[in-house]
Design goal:
InterPro entries: M28_fam, PA_dom_sf, Peptidase_M28
Keywords: Aminopeptidase, Hydrolase, Metal-binding, Protease, Signal, Zinc
Shape: globular
Organism: Lysobacter panacisoli
Number of helices: 16
Distance between the termini: 35 Å
Pfam families: Peptidase_M28
Protein name: M28 family metallopeptidase
Amino acid sequence: MSRVSLLSTAMTCTLAAGTVALAACSRPTEAPVADKPAAAPATAGTHAFNDAIHAADFAEHVKVLASDEFEGRAPGSPGEDKTVQYLEAQFKRMGLQPGNGDSYFQTVPMVETTADESTVLKLDVKGQPSTLKFGTDMVVGTRTGKSEVKVDNSDLVFVGYGVNAPEQNWNDYAGVDVKGKTVVMFVNDPGFHSQDPKLFEGKRMTYYGRWTYKFEEAARQGAAAALIIHDTEGASYGWDVVKNSWSGAQFDLPAKDDPEPRLPVQGWITGETARTLLAGLGQNLDELYKAANKPGFKAIPLPGKLSVDLKSTTGEKSSRNVVAKLPGAKRPDEAIVYMAHWDHLGNHGHEGHGEAAPAGSDTIYNGAIDNATGVAGILEIAEAFSKQTPPPDRSLVFLAVTLEESGLLGSKYYVAHPAVPLDKTVAVINLDAMPVIGLARDMTVVGFGSSELEDILKTVAEAQQRVLHAEATPEDGFYFRSDHFNFAKAGVPALYAKGGDDLVEGGIDAGRKAQSDYRDNRYHKPGDQFDPAWKLEGVIQDLDALYGVGRTLAGSEQWPNWYEGNAFRAAHDKLMQPSAK
């Protein structure tokens, strides 16, 4: 699906005092990472932290977490050890309690699978053999946890967008049996490429447009393999992002912790590769886009077969969520959760990332904006709550989750094993890829129009003379690409908000240009590094606002709900029924 502070002394003092608005080939199984002897905790050196949310403190956290020393914070790596030890040390320094019993850590079991990048897809197109190369033409992997998976002479079937949505009267699998076959499909959902507002939500991506859903549905349909055709607009990122994200170790929850059906082989092919392949199969890619966006589309069997012998290095490991708690003074059993994912893509100079990188090239994916900024944000908010007078009535939980980059797995595991029961979790506030581009006149609420949490945020933002609005590119599907989504599916009201595009200096054009520049040049690339030139006054204002939402909830008896008509309201109502408790 993000600078020396110009905050005034008055703003800092106001935060500390609390304004009216704020008040309102397998390896042997390894021992779990959490059980390894702890090294000396990483610290922020001699930095003296302020009690209030402060730009210099925020910058210090990001610099440490996004440093080369932390090696891109890959789960199961030495970078994980440094990251979770740093977080534990910071929470202890603030005086926060362990959030998972007597531990700051929640062990998340995971299966690590690294595909052999010499793997090729073999195609038989009307008797003519051809091959697709890993990285150049396609990327594939397996969720089975097996070191070798073979698919032999699997029939190809084009299934449009791979969507089965009864409430939309839409089923791309209707009338076709894909058991044992290879399904080929588009990214995003019906209505996107035609920009038809009558289909699904038109330009705005629904959950059916996410690649995770498409693979899940293909598995439910019994397919042997699934390939998504990449296009930059539909995916909202280029092929290099796909390649970087699918290279090297991939992680999943063990089947016992996530028993949904799994595909033997899943992956992507480039748009150019798809166009050539489909032409050889007697189909035109542009015409298929048109056909797949029309109600009543029927899957198209293709006169070709796919074979692949996918070898992978596998191993069972574990990673860690980090959980800290500030008990409430009056209703400690009720909690507001602030969350951010700490993981990123690691060091691609290590074994398992294909050919050795050229000498002198940068192989560390530091993930400064994605998502050292979010983690720094919850640390700053935790600092403010820990020093708040009077202390909050409700408890605050600060949750730094792992394996977001692998499909929101750390938050998925937490929701299944919450430190605070979900029916006692008042709300979740998620911080992910915070903009560092200066003060803005607005705030972006991803999934705008979802829950009553927005009413609270609106009041706080108005005190900052800011307005709320939806994300500028709803087709990117950011609502389904961050960890709050697992809480939302369980019914817990969730807010995902950050600084907007209408910058005080430069307006909307400058804001959108800066956001596009990050997406195109640094997102999921080694260039996502801390920059001393960042303009931090805007993100500090964002943190003030998000702190204000939590402060309002923590000092009240309010139980926000999803708005009427929202897809998650029924799950929330069921969650809160006395019989469900």
